[in-house]
Design goal:
It is built from five helices and six strands, in the order βαββαβαββαα. The chain is an alpha/beta fold. A six-stranded mixed sheet has the order 3-2-1-4-5-6, sandwiched between helices. Strand 1, helix 1 and strand 2 form a beta-alpha-beta unit. Helix 3 runs antiparallel to helix 4. The termini are close together.
Length: 153
């Protein structure tokens, strides 16, 4: 089992690394050439710039039973298709049961943005310590579940 993090602008990298280290799980941070990452634990893979280059690289690396942290529903859908476990930086788990609905919501929101004159919607609210705690607890639960399924713990 490995953890792959879509690390471009990901606010939970340090939390994920701390938990990965606790469970001795190898971790890979993926970013494009526009970002600079430093880690004393994770392997860092810098992927050439280009639309979705990091996303496709992450999918090519991950395998069944791996864990993926991403805020991109499309990446999550592809990782689930490979049998990986996926979690959003909010702590929400992507599953085969909820991913279709999430992709449909994303599609409908994009359609609404494209059809209106207002293209700039208010972004997400500022991240709080409660958000970090929610992610941490959810991610650790996911690791324990994955480890039981694979017999790693």
């Amino acid at each position: 089992m490995k953890i792959y993090i879509d690390a471009d602008a990901c606010p939970v990298v340090k939390i994920a690394e701390r938990i990965a280290k606790k469970y001795h799980i190898p971790t890979v941070l993926l970013c494009d050439t526009n970002h600079v990452l430093v880690s004393d634990y994770s392997e860092i893979k810098v992927i050439g710039a280009g639309a979705d280059a990091v996303d496709f690289a992450l999918i090519s690396f991950c395998k069944k039973g791996d864990l993926v942290i991403t805020q991109d529903y499309g990446v999550a859908a592809m990782a689930l298709g490979k049998g990986a476990y996926c979690i959003h930086q909010s702590g929400k788990w992507y599953t085969n049961e909820n991913i279709d609905g999430m992709l449909m919501e994303r599609h409908m929101a994009r359609k609404a943005r494209n059809s209106s004159k207002k293209h700039h919607l208010k972004g997400p609210s500022k991240r709080t310590s409660e958000d970090d705690t929610r992610f941490e607890e959810s991610f650790e639960r996911m690791i324990r579940l994955c480890s039981r399924h694979s017999g790693d713990l």
